[in-house]
Specification:
heterodimer; A: about 325 residues; alpha/beta; about 50% helix; B: about 290 residues; two-stranded antiparallel ribbon; 10 helices; 9 strands
Chain lengths: ~325, ~290
């Protein structure tokens, strides 16, 4: 198991348990009792640490190297997944996966950011940062979904759109803007689920939805805490303060009325139990999809637009 | 430093654009060609250097004043004012930043919307005020922009927007991000109603504004040599660890890469847009 900095006390305890187990296998003395005692303490410790997580700590859980990614959920939630590739004009962006699948009996279209696990895969997935061709692949799938009356389920997990030379040359801005335009007028239900990092325009570009679901320890923000800190505080060290000021957590965004549903994560975060989280997401998708599909498409679109129209606080 | 510069005696070295040695008020020095220009003359030239054609930044009101016919004009959304919903505070309170910007610019926020006419064609025109917190888009900008779109829908008038913005306003965090969705959604309705939207990208148009309302024109126009892009040049440089190509993210670069329809000199903007509108609206050529 990989532990974050603030989880160090848990890590130490877990190491001790491992050590005892190892000892136990070749010693006669019965140390099961001791192990059980330590395991209980480890659980309590995790509980106490996780009940008081700061926004900055939550953003670290959201970026945890073992956190389940889009394909981990697709595996567990859907059947008959058929991945579809390419934007038809330039390339296939591996930072976004898309395709068709079945959610129980319903055929759906899926679009999600995809991060990599090891170094090689991370590079292949470009750390989950899409280039314009990724957004254009998403656009293609969105339009396909509308044509064939498939609901769209998106999974958001990106640090943001890729800031690169080629990405700018190929129109990163236009690619994102076009998706916002099309999604806000798409005549099919859209559910977006933030499973990790909701990084700025790169997240929003597949994030306009009739229903926004967020995992408990995920984040959604206009800029990363580090980015915000380095611009407004002139120091990336102030990321923790920026995370508080921006209110990037699921709990805070719910207070602002932006999140329709929060999915609770197991103690210690989603990476402690992939299956459990996948199952909870599946249940949430099924309930919300049933609700949205029962509605008339024009009326659904009208209420999506109405919701977007009222975003913001003015005097 | 090149060998040639080393040979020069130190007193004739200049640092190019640096110091503003001209007193404020009557004269302005062009930051590109260093010509000293008489203010009134510069204003007559819509803040374009008469010597080298450098397009200087221009306030939202001066922009609209030069663009629209003198009469009639009705401002839209001026009653909409910013609130600090998140009680955001960095090294300074957002509230204080707002009142400072308001004092400095005389505007309540970073977008001015005006209903009027261009060469007798009824339009709604918006302009970003870059001196107001870098023209950043928060709730007020989003709301005023949508009001502009709604006015266009109501009277079937075309929309023109002059953007100049660093992007979404960080002090409004996620709410600022959502303005990208809100403005794009309004534009999708405008589009499906067949009402023209002309987006004019001016120096600079970056981030969340360039990745929403500014990129979505039926026709996208840029002013010469404007910085336009999604990610800022410094962020890109730090990410890719390469020096950026000459002219990267400038209007000419965007034209070359197919992102915009044309580059138009500010002094010709009114004529060109009026002409485009008459074509899109099946009206006779403007007088």
């Amino acid at each position: 198991m990989n532990f974050l900095e603030f989880e160090q006390p848990i890590a130490e305890l877990e190491a001790k348990i491992e050590e005892l187990r190892y000892l136990g296998s070749d010693a006669d003395i019965n140390i099961n009792e001791e192990i059980t005692r330590l395991q209980k303490r480890s659980r309590e410790l995790t509980q106490s640490i996780f009940t008081g997580l700061t926004p900055w700590q939550i953003s670290q859980v959201a970026r945890h190297p073992q956190r389940p990614y889009t394909l981990d959920y697709i595996d567990r939630i859907f059947t008959d997944f058929q991945e579809l590739h390419g934007d038809r004009s330039f390339a296939d962006d591996h930072a976004i996966v898309a395709g068709l699948a079945r959610l129980d009996t319903t055929a759906v279209a899926i679009i999600g950011h995809q991060k990599g696990r090891d170094i090689k895969e991370r590079i292949h997935r470009n750390y989950g940062m899409p280039r314009p061709e990724g957004y254009r692949k998403a656009l293609r799938i969105l339009e396909l979904a509308e044509r064939f009356r498939l609901p769209v389920l998106t999974f958001i997990d990106t640090p943001g759109a890729y800031p690169g030379i080629g990405a700018e040359e190929r129109g990163q801005s236009e690619a994102i803007a076009r998706n916002l335009l099309v999604m806000s007028g798409l005549k099919t239900p859209i559910i977006a689920t933030v499973i990790g990092e909701g990084g700025s325009g790169g997240a929003l570009a597949i994030g306009i939805a009739d229903c926004l679901i967020m995992l408990e320890y995920s984040t959604y923000s206009v800029i990363s805490p580090e980015g915000c800190a380095s611009i407004l505080w002139k120091s990336a060290e102030k990321a923790a303060e920026a995370a508080v000021a921006m209110g990037i957590t699921t709990a805070r965004l719910r207070e602002l009325g932006l999140v329709d549903e929060m999915i609770e994560e197991p103690l210690g975060g989603a990476h402690r139990d992939y299956d459990l989280v996948a199952d909870r997401i599946k249940q949430a998708l099924l309930t919300n999809l049933a609700r949205l599909q029962a509605r008339d498409r024009e009326e659904l679109l009208e209420s999506r637009r109405k919701k977007l129209r009222t975003m913001g606080f003015v005097q | 430093m090149s060998w040639f510069k080393k040979l020069l005696p130190s007193r004739i070295k200049t640092q190019g654009v640096s110091r503003r040695s001209v007193p404020e008020g009557i004269w302005t020095k062009c930051e590109v060609c260093s010509s000293v220009l008489y203010h009134a003359e510069l204003a007559r030239n819509i803040e374009v250097c008469p010597k080298c054609s450098h397009h200087m930044r221009i306030s939202a009101r001066e922009r609209l004043n030069n663009f629209l016919d003198p009469e009639p004009r009705i401002e839209i959304g001026s009653e909409i004012k910013p609130v600090d919903k998140l009680r955001f505070r960095d090294s300074k309170k957002y509230r204080d930043r707002l009142s400072q910007a308001q004092k400095q610019t005389g505007e309540d926020d970073a977008l001015v919307v005006m209903q009027g006419q261009v060469k007798a064609i009824p339009v709604v025109a918006c302009a970003f005020e870059f001196s107001f917190m870098g023209g950043s888009m928060g709730s007020v900008v989003g709301e005023r922009f949508v009001l502009a779109v709604e006015a266009c829908l109501l009277a079937r008038m075309p929309l023109i927007c002059f953007s100049a913005s660093g992007g979404a306003r960080m002090q409004e965090a996620i709410i600022a991000l959502m303005q990208m969705a809100k403005t794009s959604s309004a534009l999708s309705v405008l589009r499906s109603n067949g009402i023209p939207y002309i987006s004019v990208l001016t120096d600079p148009t970056m981030g969340g504004v360039s990745a929403s309302l500014a990129a979505l024109g039926d026709i996208n126009i840029a002013e010469p040599n404007a910085l336009i892009g999604f990610a800022g040049p410094r962020v890109i440089e730090q990410t890719v660890r390469e020096t950026l190509p000459e002219g990267f993210q400038r209007s000419e670069f965007l034209l070359e890469h197919g992102a915009i329809d044309m580059i138009v000199d500010r002094r010709d903007m009114r004529e060109r847009i009026a002409s485009l509108l008459t074509l899109l609206l099946h009206r006779p050529a403007p007088a």
